[in-house]
Design goal:
- The chain is an alpha+beta fold.
- The protein contains ten helices and nine strands.
- A four-stranded mixed β-sheet has the order 6-5-8-9, with helices on both faces. Strands 3-2-7 form a three-stranded antiparallel β-sheet, with helices on one face. A two-stranded antiparallel sheet has the order 1-4.
- The termini are far apart.
Length: about 325
Amino acid sequence: TLKVIKKGGFLGHLIKGNWEDDEVATSNASGEFDREKSSFREIISKDHPSFKPEKDRYHLYVSYACPWAHRTLITRKLKNLEDIITVNVVHPDMLENSWTFNTSFPGATGDQVHKKNYLYEIYQMHKSDVTSKVTVPVLWDKKIHQIVNNESAEIIRIFNSAFNEFTDESLDLYPKELQSEIDTINKKTYEPINNGVYKTGFAKNQSAYEKAFDELFSALDSMDTHLEGKEFLVGKRLTEADIRLITTFLRFDAVYYTHFKCNAKRISDYKNLSRYTENLYNKFSEIKETTHFDHIKRHYYYSHDFINPHRIIAKGPETLF
């Protein structure tokens, strides 16, 4: 049974094509945050009946604030796909109409493809009576006017392999010889860490909060041990596993520690997690240049009025890598 929080901005839903702004964050009967599954899960492949790899056919809608969307931006840049796949950035405020294409915040681009006002209108273009949560990232097909995929883990796989013929980038973020290890790390990090910060921050009672909190920091402790003497999570190279985890770490001290009450330790308090995060941020321009702390802080503190009713945006911390 899912309960609905009726205050503040989080996701919003389209119900049979109609925008519903009162569904914010779903929780189960125990008060635990229950993330809904992504609706669109197609791939791009030469063998796909509809979605073939082509230059300038696909468009990515993202938020700079969102860790899931950030994954796709990093991968797009690492794979030299910036001239292959176009992108637009939503405004960081997610209020009664969820993500908007308002351009009043620096870095927000508007919708340069369809000139729409709201992201939910992109979903409506896919199907007029669509029922779906409205989230970023969204990978859109400009040729047949359809959403290909809105699941970040799958979009980064698409970017890693589907467009290799259009770029000389040889980097493989999911190499065959490391796939088993990458999959294992992904399982260890997704639920307790990537999703765990949300389960902690959106918990509806003390018990649910403490359960998510303990699982989060147990996983962080374990990951700190795992990274002893290591530069990367798997092998001796950057992989998908790093990209999936780093976007959570980059937001942790600035937002999750305070706003989501994930306050046992900061990432900067961990010997190996802090070294790992700072190293990736400074070593890979693709990570640094797609990280926008102004969007990150504005979105979380301003959008979640059910957590922060006065919408006061924290000034600190003073230094972030």
